[in-house]
Write a structure and sequence with these properties.
Order of helices and strands: HHHHHHHHHHEHHEHHEEEHEHEH
Number of strands: 7
Distance between the termini: 59 Å
Largest sheet: 7 strands, mixed
Number of domains: 2
Structural class: alpha/beta
Radius of gyration: 25 Å
Shape: globular
CATH class of the largest domain: Alpha Beta
CATH architecture of the largest domain: 3-Layer(aba) Sandwich
Number of helices: 17
Oligomer: single chain
CATH topology of the largest domain: Trna Endonuclease, Chain: A, domain 1
Amino acid sequence: MTTKLNKDILPDAYNEFLSDVASAVQQHRVQAIQSVQTISNQLYWSIGELIIKKQLEFGWGKSVILLLSRDLPQLIGEGVSWSPRNLQFMKQLVAEYSNVNQLGSHLENANVKQVASHLENTNVKPPVSHLDYAKKLVLTTPWYHNILILQKVKDPKARIFYLEQTIKNRYSRAVLLHQIKANAYEYYISKPSQHNFAKALPEHFQEQARESIKSVYSLDFLDINKPVTEKALESTMVENVKRLMLELGYGFCFIGNQYRLSLGEKDYYIDLLFYHRILKCLVAVELKVVEFEPEFVGKLDFYLQLMDEQLKQFDDKPSIGILLVPDKNHLEVEYTLRNANKPIGVAEYILSKELPKELIGKLPTVEEFQSVLITATKSKNKS
């Protein structure tokens, strides 16, 4: 049956209204899932605390976990995995994150506000100490994500980092594992992100923008193990755009590649164009296959000016540019960004963390690789 709209109900207004209602329902569903998840994790944390307390109080060994695994299902029924392994994880979770001395040096610098907006709908009280903050992260993170971090990450500071990133970017378990294998934490602490957001963005928008730009992007999922041109790199990214957006972070929506901008009689093309739903702004990504050059920033700055004038909607925030390069001199980047008027972040990318065994010794050296890239770029510019 087809229902016609009354003449006093405008189609555009109704469609917007319908979208608002659907968004409210979806948000409620997400909050409901998060609430159940947090309550379940609170239970697991409490059980872990009880196990530790009773083992200390009575001198019980590991056998108590085996007994608990056997007797709990008979007493309260199935529904939760009461396996010895899962109970051991409950105990380990509390033991590992209760060591405030180990976590303190990282949490002194942890910006709780950056994660707070992602946790505001949970049932956990606001954190008042390092332990409270770590516990809040654990309770808000999916259970099997917690287990993965415990198994794969041994550095307490790195664990906090991956918990924060999981919550902010809503990582699936597969994406979280990819980030761990790509050494995301090591790159985070060794190569701080470089941008001019403090100068080019309103103060209230700077923190959000900083948290959305990484210092290094792992593009090893592109499966590129040989020198490529910028066009080939871009093409491969577009083919893998879903995985690319997961690597960029939560909130990126793909608009297109080689997106055309015009000024007078001349056309310009943005390599990759996104819209960020959280930041409420356009994001231009420019790709380079040679190390950073200052003129790259000038070109991207020019594109951002055109985007703000031609594409930006009245309620959008200022457009942001991300320049991806295989290598950069941090001092050179810092000096170059001082003169850029638009918000730009310069980040490195890695195509492959390690070579397959069958390729070892068969690929060119770093020097040969750079020579090929430079030659390819010059040929492209001439054409």
